[in-house]
UniProtKB/TrEMBL annotation, chain A:
Organism: Saccharomycopsis crataegensis
Gene3D superfamilies: Glutamine Phosphoribosylpyrophosphate, subunit 1, domain 1
Main location: nucleus
Compartment annotation: Nucleus
Protein name as annotated: Proteasome core particle subunit beta 6
Family annotation (InterPro entries): Ntn_hydrolases_N (IPR029055), Proteasome_bsu_CS (IPR016050), Proteasome_sua/b (IPR001353), Proteasome_suB-type (IPR023333)
From TrEMBL, chain B:
One GO term of the biological process aspect: proteasome-mediated ubiquitin-dependent protein catabolic process
Principal location: cytoplasm
Organism: Saccharomycopsis crataegensis
Keywords (A to Z) from UniProt: Cytoplasm, Nucleus, Proteasome
Keyword Cytoplasm: yes
An annotated GO cellular component: proteasome core complex, beta-subunit complex
Residue runs in coiled coils: none
Protein name: Proteasome subunit beta
Family to which the UniProt record says this protein belongs: Belongs to the peptidase T1B family.
Compartments in which it is found: Cytoplasm; Nucleus
Known function: Non-catalytic component of the proteasome.
UniProtKB/TrEMBL annotation, chain C:
EC number(s) reported in the record: 3.4.25.1
One Gene Ontology molecular-function label: threonine-type endopeptidase activity
Species: Saccharomycopsis crataegensis
Subcellular location as annotated: Nucleus
Active site as annotated: T72
Ranges for domain Proteasome beta subunit C-terminal: 264-298
Keywords: Cytoplasm, Hydrolase, Nucleus, Protease, Proteasome, Threonine protease
Complex and partners: The 26S proteasome consists of a 20S proteasome core and two 19S regulatory subunits. The 20S proteasome core is composed of 28 subunits that are arranged in four stacked rings, resulting in a barrel-shaped structure. The two end rings are each formed by seven alpha subunits, and the two central rings are each formed by seven beta subunits. The catalytic chamber with the active sites is on the inside of the barrel.
InterPro entries reported for this sequence: Ntn_hydrolases_N (IPR029055), Pept_T1A_subB (IPR000243), Proteasome_bsu_C (IPR024689), Proteasome_sua/b (IPR001353), Proteasome_suB-type (IPR023333)
UniProt-recorded name of the protein: proteasome endopeptidase complex
An individual GO BP term: proteasomal ubiquitin-independent protein catabolic process
């Protein structure tokens, strides 16, 4: 074996000798998925928490309700994920205190999270973060972030261990990529999916990821944001 | 989880390649001093399971110095407050530091004698913050900690915490080797949170005793002497010390000869 | 020595069955040229020709390909008058499940079977090789093969390769001397015992063995114990999953392979159907190339005889 430092997030580098010291990161598996609809948004994740080949917990939900009809999940190294969400919640408390309990918009929450992540630019939070909520017009909003704070508003995004398995499925089924209208031969037009259709896609995405990724399984947590507020559903997943 | 405490927190060989010993052998006078952290005297697994009215937790009394069974009377189950016990594995000096930190916390919290009592979830959160802060300073407390007790809603509380600040809870928890050998047995008793309501104190205790036996059979850094604690939300903490692994069976060993070619026909 | 390309022309007959012709079973003859490099295939054993090259490109930071590993739970256990081995059926490549229902129980001889953990290709090949040698040995001696012989062949082969052949095996079987159970590690060491577990789920399986095993079990008790041990691996070890395969070898009887003895992980029905309308995949461009000239030769077809 060569002295390589390799990670999913970085390039491979052999020019520096590896330092033999404490490694402050680990990977706790799991996967998350957010989809925005016309008047709703969902954020889903499995509840399996892993280290190596072991299951630490079969039920450790990681989609958090932040209040203000916002939900958030930071998937990857769970200690960093917990710390990020906690510091966001503290900032939100101060925001409410200073602004007569004004409701925080998803776009503002996203900008705040960017600053929290970039604040650790040289000792990053090792997480893929997604938030979901409703924008000022009541439309579903999903924002996703890389570990150091680059972010974008999107229609849908998968993050975590099985992101590379789920994302192509979403491209095809949510944004109709590579689908053509048989009648016209033109690319299939984008339409908003209904909530029950989205929930079916989410469940199929997770049962499929469970089949093919060892770190995904046990239980599926889905948080759904509508103008009525946030509600939560759980579905069992395979436990092997 | 990696069961060998010596490998905790190090880059994984399978992912990063074998450790290059030239690094540790190099004369690095022009480098600033880097203190490589590693546990010295270590304690092995802590195991715990929930039952309908509380939690049973156990840990053996051995302090290992590498492969030397150095200390045989280490207590690794530490009571904090009225209804919480913290079980600690990994480095023993860091264990004692945590013990002191928790004691200070308790004194600080209760010095006016009229304070809000500590509950298990508070202690868990305090330890989580402490461990995560130390890992973020790259100067970790080399431990895995199980907090067992009663939470502020008067329900059984069980959570795990480690040197990286990683935290989770489950009806069954175990650190170190226990995560591999004891968890499969404990999950047969309580796999889901819903199962806990049907588990009696006796069943939980029996599963823990069985797991301690298997751990003594198979974990080379374990001993047959252990402490066991039962935390019941009605009757409180009952501590049992100086327990011994019982009903072991080594009889089949006499039928084994050699390693393949000396079988009796 | 520089390898010289040796040109050979092999006659090759392709049977094309789906031509829109009435006479669909008529064979066609197509000449195909194959260039072969034959100079390296003379030496016996594994080829290490690429070793230095791989070392070099690895030092340049190119990652080596990952072998499919059967990160596995396998077990074996003896009972009164026989032996049982069992395995899960998940094969992984890193965190990805490569095969949900692979076979990890290999036949060395009709009554000697072997459960394999480690690198999938190594367990497969070493098992085939020793299976062949066992057969030859049995033909030569005109005796039924023995478990001890397969153990010796395997351990000597694995020791020779100093652990580079990543096969971790549980060998079991019945022969004229009775029922036997062994385990072998990739470096060539072997173990004897009334029960054995190996693979990433070996600790989960061993916890079951250590609590449930007893002396003088019946065949049924033994199968149940092995299946339970594998299940412990399936639920608690991420490297193991899907189904339980079992093989029972009883003295004086044929070995019995119980493929998918337990299937506790059947996938639930999908919430939605993903059948696309015909024409959803558009044809953007179409081009047809003539790659071979098909030369038609009439070959007399033998008269059909009713079976």
């Amino acid at each position: 074996m060569s002295n390589t430092i390799a990670s999913e997030y970085g390039h491979t580098d052999t020019s520096v000798p590896i330092e033999h010291r404490f490694n402050p990161y680990s990977d706790n598996g799991g996967t998350i998925l957010g989809i925005a609809g016309e008047d709703f948004a969902v954020l889903a994740g499995d509840t399996r928490h892993t280290s190596g080949y072991s299951i630490n917990s079969r039920f450790q939900p990681k989609i958090m309700d932040l209040g203000d009809d916002l939900v958030m999940s930071a998937n990857g190294f769970s200690a960093d994920g917990d710390a990020l969400i906690r510091s966001f919640q503290q900032q939100l408390t101060w925001y409410h205190f200073n602004n007569q309990n004004k409701k925080l918009r998803p776009s503002s929450a996203a900008r705040l999270i960017q600053h929290l992540l970039y604040g650790h630019r040289f000792f990053p939070y090792y997480v893929h973060t997604i938030i979901a909520g409703l924008d000022e017009e009541g439309k579903g909003a999903i924002y996703s972030f890389d570990p150091v704070g680059s972010y974008e508003r999107e229609q849908c995004r998968a993050g975590g261990a099985a992101a590379s398995l789920i994302m192509p499925f979403l491209d095809n089924q949510v944004n109709f990529k590579n689908q053509y209208d048989p009648a016209t031969g033109q690319a299939r037009l984008k339409t908003y999916l209904k909530l029950d259709e989205v929930l079916n896609l989410v469940r199929d995405a997770f049962t499929s990821a469970t089949e093919r990724h060892i770190e995904v399984g046990d239980c599926l947590q889905i948080k759904i944001i509508t103008k009525e507020g946030v509600r939560e559903e759980f579905y069992p997943l395979k436990r092997d | 989880m990696e069961h060998d405490p010596f490998k905790w927190g190090r880059p994984d060989n399978a992912t990063y390649g074998d450790y290059d010993y030239r690094i540790s052998n190099a004369k690095n006078t022009e480098f600033p001093s880097m203190h490589t952290q590693q546990p010295i005297v270590t304690g092995t697994s802590v195991i715990a399971i929930k039952y309908k009215n509380g939690i049973v937790m156990a840990a053996d009394n051995l302090g290992s110095y590498g492969s030397l069974a150095r200390f045989s009377n280490i207590e690794r189950l530490i009571p904090v407050g009225k209804d919480t016990v913290v079980g600690i594995s990994g480095d023993i000096s860091d264990l004692q530091y945590i013990e002191r930190a928790l004691d200070e916390l308790e004194v600080e919290n209760d010095y006016d004698g009229a304070s809000h009592p500590f509950k298990a979830n508070h202690i868990h959160e305090y330890l989580n913050k402490l461990l995560y802060q130390r890992r973020s300073k790259l100067n970790p407390l080399w431990n895995a900690v199980v907090v067992a007790g009663i939470n502020s809603d008067n329900e059984p509380f069980l959570a795990h915490n480690d040197l990286l600040g990683v935290q989770f809870s489950s009806p069954t928890l175990a650190t170190g080797f226990g995560a591999h050998l004891a968890i499969p047995l404990l999950r047969k008793v309580a796999d889901k949170e819903e199962d806990v309501a049907h588990v009696t104190k006796e069943q939980a205790r029996e599963a823990i005793l069985q797991s301690m036996k298997v751990l003594f059979y198979r974990d080379a850094r374990s001993s047959n002497r252990f402490s066991l604690v039962t935390i019941d939300k009605d009757t409180g903490i009952s501590f049992e010390k100086d327990l011994k692994v019982e009903n072991m069976s080594w009889k089949y060993a006499e039928t084994i000869k050699g390693y393949g070619n000396l079988q009796k026909f | 020595m520089v390898a010289q390309p040796v040109q050979k022309v092999f006659p090759l007959t392709l049977k094309i069955t789906n031509l829109p012709s009435s006479n669909s079973s008529r064979p066609w003859r197509i000449p195909v040229r194959i260039d072969c490099y034959l100079s390296h295939i003379k030496m016996a054993g594994l080829s290490f020709d690429n070793f230095q090259r791989n070392q070099y490109i690895a030092s340049k930071g190119v990652a080596m390909p990952k072998a499919t590993s059967t990160g596995t739970t396998i077990v074996g256990c003896k009972f009164n008058g026989g032996v049982v081995i069992a395995a899960d059926t998940r094969a992984t490549a890193g965190p990805i499940v490569a095969d949900k229902n692979c076979e990890k129980l290999h036949k060395l001889s009709p009554k000697i079977w072997c459960a394999g953990a480690g690198t999938a290709a190594d367990t497969e090949m070493v098992t085939q090789l020793i299976g062949s040698n066992l057969e030859l040995h049995s033909l030569y001696t005109n005796r039924e093969p023995r478990v001890i012989a397969s153990l010796t062949l395997l351990k000597q082969h694995l020791f020779k390769y100093q652990g580079h052949i990543g096969a971790y095996l549980i060998v079991a079987g019945v022969d004229p001397t009775g029922a036997h159970l062994f385990s072998i590690h990739a470096h060539g060491s072997t173990d004897v015992g009334p029960y054995q577990t190996l693979g990433s789920g070996s600790l989960a399986a061993m916890s079951v063995m250590e609590t449930q095993w007893k002396e003088n079990m019946t065949k049924e008790e033994c199968i149940k114990l092995c299946a339970d041990a594998i299940e412990a691996g399936i639920w608690n070890d991420l490297g193991s999953g899907s189904n339980v395969d079992v093989c029972v070898m009883e003295v004086g009887k044929d070995a019995q392979l119980l493929r998918n003895y337990i299937t506790p992980n059947i996938r639930e029905q999908k919430a939605k159907s993903y059948k696309f309308k015909k024409g959803t995949t558009a044809i953007l461009r179409e081009s047809i190339y003539n790659l071979v000239d098909v030369e038609e030769t009439e070959i007399p077809v033998p008269m059909e005889v009713d079976a």
